[in-house]
Amino acid sequence: MPHAYTEDQLVEQPAIGLFAEFGWATVSALEETFSATGCCRVCCRGRRI
What we know:
Strand content: under 5%
Number of helices: 1
Largest sheet: none
Number of domains: 1
Oligomer: single chain
Helix content: 25-40%
Shape: flat
Structural class: mainly alpha
Radius of gyration: 14 Å
């Protein structure tokens, strides 16, 4: 059984909620892979997340 006190529940989700209150778009990159086909748009210079 997963523990209720995880980094996701204590840090990530509250931060995502706060960003949503600011009107910012968010993306979960928990399962993102770092390769030529999957890099959450941070591997390319000049592109912003």
